[in-house]
Structure formats: C-alpha cells, structure tokens
C-alpha cells in the first residue's frame, strides 16, 4: 500500500502528465482510493500497522475532499477493540475568517452580559488605557469579556466594568 505522501506524489505526477488535476468531482471515494493506492489488499484483522496505513490513506483522500469544499478534514481518532472491529472518527472544521467566527459567537451570547452585537470591536477606556472588545468566554464566570489594548495584549474584564466604561465613552 502506498503512504499518504506517495499518494500526493502520484497526483502530482498525473498533473504533470495531463496538465490538470484529475476530475475529483465525478469520482467516489472508493474510485479515488483505487486510483491512488492501486489494488485493494484484504485484511484478516486490524493491527496497529494496518490501522496506521489506513489512517494515512484516509487522510490523503480527505485532503482532496476538503480542498474541494474549502473545509478542513482529518482522522482524529482510530480505535480497535478486538482486532475485528474498528472505529474511525473523522473531524471537520469550516475554514473561515477567525474574526467572523468570533463576531458570530459574540453576537450569540452578548445579551447574557447586557451587551449588544454592535459592541464587538468597540473601544473603551479603563484606568486611562484604551481597549477593544473582541470576544466573550462564558466559561470564565468572573471575567468573561476579552479585550486588547493598543499593543495587542489581551486582558479579561468583568461585565459591569465593561458596561460602565462603554457608557462613559458614549
């Protein structure tokens, strides 16, 4: 079986020969695996070595699928119980602008702290220093609001402190 790096090298070779990437939109995962890995080898049982090879091949395939949809996919956990049964957990993440994600999270929970979605990115002063709100971490009960100063250092604030400071700067 070929390893993930060899699979990518195979696709690069196909790219050089044909001048474009193979059309993955019309191929199933099994077809992609066959094209990359060659013939399938039957397994009698799952052992550590075969699971590592399978994980590398799945990651190689997930790489192309993830690029097609603009997401991040990888095998996060492979578990084998008795040599015959295995569980493979694939995790995925939408690749987005971090600021947009933080802004959406802020908007969804800001009402818990008497803030409004427009307070995201708003500046306030505390002890003579300017800060800009960029996140809320509700697991931190005492100081859930995160803000950065002009140097980019992150500080934690309580909701009452921020609310008062925002009212003063308005």
The arrangement of helices and strands along the chain is HHHEEHEEEEH
Taking all residues together, what is the mean pLDDT?
Answer: 78
- The helix content is 40-55%
- Shape descriptor: elongated
The main pleated sheet reads as:
4 strands, antiparallel
According to DSSP, the number of beta strands is 6
What Rg is obtained from the alpha carbons, in whole angstroms? 25 Å
Distance between the termini: 65 Å
Structural class given helices, strands, pairing?
alpha+beta
Walk across the major sheet and give the strand order: 3-4-5-6
Strand residues, percent: 15-25%
Number of continuous helical runs: 5
Query: Which runs of at least 5 residues are low in confidence (pLDDT < 50)?
Result: none
- Tell me the number of structural domains: 2
Structure report:
- The protein has 170 residues and is of the alpha+beta class.
- The chain has two domains: 4-94, no CATH class; 98-169, no CATH class.
- It contains five helices and six strands.
- It has helices at 4-18, 29-37, 48-69, 98-109, 159-169; strands spanning 71-80, 86-94, 123-126, 129-136, 145-149, 154-157.
- The strands form two sheets. It has a four-stranded antiparallel β-sheet.
- Strand 1 (71-80) and strand 2 form a beta hairpin.
- The longest helix has 22 residues, at 48-69.
- 11% of the residues are buried.
- The model has no long low-confidence stretch (mean pLDDT 78).
Keywords:
four-stranded antiparallel sheet, 170 residues, single chain, two-stranded antiparallel ribbon, alpha+beta, 2 domains
Describe, in short, the structure shown.
By secondary structure, the protein is an alpha+beta fold. It has helices at residues 4-18, 29-37, 48-69, 98-109, 159-169; strands at 71-80, 86-94, 123-126, 129-136, 145-149, 154-157. The chain is 41% helix and 24% strand.
């Amino acid at each position: 079986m070929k390893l993930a790096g060899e699979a990518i090298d195979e696709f690069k070779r196909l790219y050089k020969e044909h001048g474009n990437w193979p059309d993955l939109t019309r191929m199933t995962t099994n077809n992609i695996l066959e094209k990359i890995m060659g013939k399938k080898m039957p397994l009698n049982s799952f052992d550590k070595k075969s699971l590592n090879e399978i994980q590398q091949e799945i990651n190689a395939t997930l790489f192309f699928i993830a690029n097609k949809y603009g997401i991040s996919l990888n095998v996060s956990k492979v578990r084998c119980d008795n040599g015959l049964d295995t569980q493979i957990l694939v995790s995925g993440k939408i690749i987005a602008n971090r600021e947009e994600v933080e802004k959406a999270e802020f908007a969804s929970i800001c009402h818990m702290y008497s803030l409004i979605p427009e307070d995201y990115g708003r500046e306030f002063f505390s002890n003579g220093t300017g800060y800009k709100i960029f996140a809320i971490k509700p697991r931190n009960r005492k100081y859930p609001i995160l803000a950065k100063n002009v140097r980019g250092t992150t500080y934690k604030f309580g909701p009452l402190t921020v609310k008062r400071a925002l009212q003063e700067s308005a």
